[in-house]
Design brief:
There is one protein chain. The protein has 305 residues and is an alpha+beta fold. Helix content is 13%, strand content 27%. The chain has three helices and 13 strands. The strands form two sheets. An eleven-stranded antiparallel sheet has the order 8-7-6-5-4-3-13-12-11-10-9, covered by helices on one side. A hairpin with an 8-residue loop joins β9 and β10 (221-227). The longest helix is centred in the N-terminal third of the chain and has 16 residues, at 47-62. The protein is globular, with a radius of gyration of 47 Å.
Length: 305
């Protein structure tokens, strides 16, 4: 090879390797920490903007910045243990009992007591709010028919003429017009038509009320009435009371027996008069008179109150 000639040494061929894109440099910052774009420093965020930014989580969490309104508290649990719907039933019964107080009628009811034959009770409510209830075979152990009547002069028990009556007919004043009958002469049959209606209209009375299935022979709506008082003296007899839509009592089942309306009531009179003359003796008791020791029957009257 001539002197000075260059010798070409072939190199080993290598595949081309693509160049990796270098990572983007971090954003430039100015000496005071501000970001720089296109060679210019961005203005620093001002104080108010920072405050708004910091407050955003609070604003987004509570809307207007006030405390959120708490959900309404659930209604308190009933302290009487009344079943659901009891308030509705209580209101409905109160309304019907109020309508019954304004009903002026003459009506008859089938009266049944276990172990006794069926009897017919007649109820008369006059337009002047006097009333009379005739209850056969209810005094002297079932041997005497009586009527209870309230007029402006008082509350009276009247012995009605009867083939079995061991005493003379007549009426005895036993209490003031708004007074109570003593227990020994009170058959209780008259109460659902008179003073118990006031209790049933009073929503503060210690009663639990629910709608129940109708009594046999009764129409309208029937209510089961229970006492919620620990006292043994309930303001009304617990039981079932049925009323038509116009307030007519159509049926009762209570401790004294059961009543069911018989037929269509007639209009009541203007006033009620006593079915007999006033007599000077005591009222007839409910119980049968004691057997006489000398064989002479007694009249079974009680001491005059």
């Amino acid at each position: 090879m001539p002197a000075g000639a260059h010798t070409h040494v072939p190199s080993t061929a290598r595949p081309a390797v693509p160049r990796a894109t270098p990572p983007a440099p971090p954003p430039a910052t100015a000496p005071d920490g501000r970001a720089v774009r296109r060679g210019r420093a961005l203005p620093a965020l001002t104080g108010p903007v920072l405050l708004v930014t910091a407050a955003l989580p609070l604003v987004s969490g509570c809307g207007t910045g006030t405390e959120p309104t708490p959900p309404p508290a659930p209604p308190p649990a009933s302290t009487t243990g009344a079943p659901p719907g009891a308030d509705v039933a209580r209101d409905q019964l109160a309304a019907l009992a109020a309508a019954a107080q304004d009903r002026h009628l003459t009506a008859t009811y089938r009266f049944n007591v276990p172990g006794r034959p069926e009897r017919t009770v007649t109820v008369t409510n006059a337009t002047d709010d006097t009333w009379r209830v005739d209850i056969p075979q209810s005094a002297l152990g079932g041997t005497a028919d009586i009527a209870l009547a309230r007029t402006g002069d008082g509350l009276f028990q009247c012995a009605l003429p009867s083939g079995q009556l061991p005493t003379s007919p007549g009426c005895v004043r036993v209490a003031d017009p708004d007074g109570d009958l003593p227990g020994e002469i009170d058959p209780r049959v008259q109460h659902p038509f008179t003073d118990w209606l006031r209790v049933l209209t009073d929503r503060q009375s210690a009663l639990s009320v629910s709608v129940t299935r109708p009594l046999p022979g009764a129409s309208g709506t029937c209510f089961s009435v229970e006492s919620t008082s620990a006292s043994l003296n309930s303001p009304v007899d617990v039981g079932i009371y049925c009323f038509a839509a116009d307030g007519t009592l159509t049926g009762v089942r209570a401790a004294f027996g059961s009543l069911s309306l018989a037929g269509t009531p007639a209009a009541g009179p203007a006033t009620v008069s006593l079915p007999g003359q006033l007599v000077d003796r005591g009222p007839l008791g409910l119980a049968a008179p004691p057997a006489p020791a000398d064989g002479v029957p007694t009249d079974g009257v009680t001491a005059t109150p």
